Amino acid sequence: MAPEATGGPAVRRRVGLAVVRGDSMRPTLAPGDRLVVAYGARVQPGRVVVARFPDGTVVVKRVAERRGSGWWLLGDNPDAGVDSRHRGPIPDADLWGVARLRLWPRPRLL
């Protein structure tokens, strides 16, 4: 990476796609929805993120709050799926990216 004018490393944002599986994010997101994800973007409460749980499962969840050394992630549908109520706080390194918009089937900002 080329250094910035301040002497620090340049930050490169990568953009990719994620596919929603399961019903844990209903009614906001449905299975099969395609999301545009900004990998390495700043995480903040209320945002939908792509993260990895301690067991290696990659998930799409909403950031609820910061708890200790990690982030508390919840699904929008509390009756479906697994989230931080089952897995605990997720460390910064395991929050891969922030979903910016639903690309398909009904495009809209998240």
Q: Runs with pLDDT <50, length 5+? A: 1-9
Radius of gyration: 15 Å
Shape: globular
Helical coverage, percent range = under 10%
Written as H for each helix and E for each strand, in order along the chain, the element string is EEEEEHEEE
Largest sheet: 8 strands, antiparallel
Average pLDDT confidence is 90
- Structural classification: mainly beta
Summarize the model shown.
By secondary structure, the chain is mainly β. It contains 1 helix and 8 strands.
How would you characterize this protein structure?
The protein is mainly beta. It contains 1 helix and 8 strands. The chain has one helix at 84-87, and strands spanning 14-19, 34-39, 48-52, 58-67, 70-74, 90-91, 95-104, 108-109. Strands 1, 2, 3, 4, 5, 6, 7 and 8 form an 8-stranded antiparallel β-sheet that branches. A hairpin with a 5-residue loop joins strand 3 (48-52) and strand 4. The longest helix is centred in the last third of the chain and has 4 residues, at 84-87. It is globular and about 35 Å long. The N and C termini lie far apart (30 Å). Mean pLDDT is 90; it is low at 1-9.
